[in-house]
Amino acid sequence: MVARRFLWRIAPASLLCLALVSAIGQAAPSKPNPSTEIHTDPNATLLQFNDALQRLAARVSSGVVQILVNGYGPLEEGKGDAALIARQRAIGSGVIVDPSGYIMTNAHVVEGAQRIRVVLPMNLAVGEGPMVETEGKLRTVEARLVGVHKDTDLALLKINATNLPTLPLAASKRVIQGELVFAVGSPEGLRNTITMGVVSSTARQPDPDRAMVYIQTDAPINPGNSGGPLVDVEGNVLGINTFIYSQGGGSEGLGFAIPARVVDFVYHSLRKYGHVHRSEIEAGAQTITPSMATALGLRQDYGVVISDVTPGGPAEAAGLKIGDVVRSVDDRPVETLPAFMGMLYLHPVDKVLKMEILRGAEIKMLHIPVLQESHRMDQLLDLAQTEKDLVPQLAILAVSIDDTIRPMIPDLRLSSGVVVVGRAADLFGPDIGLGNGDIIHAVNNRPVDTVDNLRSALKQFKPGDPIALQIERAGKLQYLAFEME
């Protein structure tokens, strides 16, 4: 049975495959013409190719980091019906996208993380602090999780660093089937590994009901490659490696990378907001299959059909109906679900969306006002008052959980506490890993239920005093320990 495997866990696999055109030097030579024969070194082409690969490897490796994660996760093999979890260590990869320490990786690499560290070469400029460890020629630095977008399996990390080497995201570059590509990462925990292959497909959609499309490659990628880049011969990031299809757990030439245009969009959203903003028309869509088209009496057996329209939403108000076939959005043809969803993501919120649909035999043009997808953190931030809800000791903005906010936080473990809704950029405070959405329940075992109580509890400590915050993150309780600054 072929399984889809993410790439951050360690599993046996082959590591390096450098296969080019083996016919070079092997094809039957034609009879030379003494009058036209040019005498050259038969190894010159291969030597030039070898030198180019070495330069490329040196350049791209400097912009790729190893990510070490500690946390809890489910055991893959458990007995009985009980759900078993255990402390786990995971290894993944990341791409430096900004010289000030922003790193893109996969969401599944950092899922359930209690501690995230990034391994850097010693010669890179890293801020001094208690979170820096050195070993040999490597330096391990604590990382803060800025934001996660599970729909695309992407996450953004931040480390205290300056002047880091970066790899450019080729968001506007056309990826071509058959072009040479290289995967860089830490397969099996072996950092700074590079493998070579070609682009097998430029837009593969493994799940017809999910909008995500991927770059497919036969460059060997294995557990530990997750979050590492897939680069072209110029060192541009074409995508971020995310999963493989495999029967044995190792690379079988079916690797998939998130396209750079998606990575670029998610990166800027996570950096600005801590989550991803997108336009919404309150309607659902699915890929049309031949059997669906026959059963529903559709005029075409390919493309996208509207499967849901929210009552009272902008799509219903504009006249969109279940069963409508989407022909174009904003005057651009729509033939796939990923294309449809991509246009929604990128459409400006302040402009009306144009949608041409096919209803029976009739073609209609609809003009649909769009909404900005409401995100819980935006709603909480709107409720915060800068002066009243600032916690200067932690350099955060937080709101108290009350009867208004409690319904906005599903599956709340403890009924009281304060929610972190932002960091104060103009304040210097301990970067202990608090992120937007984290809920602080206690300080050194002292429960806190309001922002005032949190500030009061923190005022009791002097610089250097040890502090342990009990927080709730993604439905799980954990401690964050640090020393007061």
Protein architecture, described:
36% of the residues are buried. This protein is an alpha+beta fold and 485 residues long. 15% of the residues lie in helices and 36% in strands. The model is unreliable at 8-30 and 77-85 (pLDDT under 50). The radius of gyration is 26 Å and the shape is flat. Among the domains are: 64-75 and 84-158, Thrombin, subunit H (Beta Barrel); 279-372, PDZ domain (Pdz3 Domain, Roll); 376-483, Roll (Pdz3 Domain), CATH 2.30.42.10. It has 8 helices and 30 strands. The chain has helices at residues 44-61, 107-110, 260-273, 290-296, 314-318, 337-346, 376-383, 451-459; strands at 3-6, 64-74, 85-98, 102-105, 113-121, 132-135, 138-142, 144-149, 154-158, 180-185, 193-204, 214-217, 229-231, 237-246, 255-259, 279-280, 283-287, 304-309, 325-329, 332-333, 353-359, 362-368, 371-372, 390-391, 396-400, 418-423, 439-443, 446-447, 466-473, 476-483.
